[in-house]
Amino acid sequence: MTDPQSPTHADFRRAAALVAHRAEGSVDGIRCVLNEAGELNRTTPLLTSVIDCFTHLTRELRTDEAIIAINESLAQCATLSHDTASRRGAEVILARHEKNVDAFNAVLIEANDDGRPVEVIAAVLDLYLVLLPELASAYALSSLAKWTARIAASENGIDGD
Q: Binning pLDDT at 50, 70 and 90, where does residue 159 land?
């Protein structure tokens, strides 16, 4: 049986749109995606989809050595950052990469207890846009728009959430 919180095509479509909206600086677009995910109770799958989306993009844009350096930077941020949102963002990324569900959930529980769960998604977006600044380029935004459209086309034939 499939976990109802497993990411779907709709979650990946929302993630790709969210990455593009963040790279463009579109607050309305970000708000729209987050509201849609929240209304459908898909915020956690959106978060995992955003991380998976960035993981894929990182593999496409960086060498193996650069990926090691990125992961080390995330580990430093998770342990040394004085900014709570950045620390949580780095922790949740690393937990997802390590498939550590307990650590992933611990970050979300801590953020929920503080009344700041959306800040985790925002921190993930911000961290990756620092690590992959080229995502704000016209070419990358065009590619993200095409990717979002392809996912939406697949989604329409596969699932309806």
A: very low
Burial of 76 (0-12, 13-18, 19+ CB in 10 A): exposed
Report the distance separating Cα 98 and Cα 15, nearest Å.
20
- Say if residue 119's pLDDT is above 70: yes
DSSP string, 62-104: S-HHHHHHHHHHHHHHHHH-S-HHHHHHHHHHHHHHTT-HHHH
As a whole number of angstroms, the distance between CA 14 and CA 54 comes to 13
Cα-Cα-Cα-Cα torsion 116, 122, 128, 131, nearest 10 degrees, comes to -80
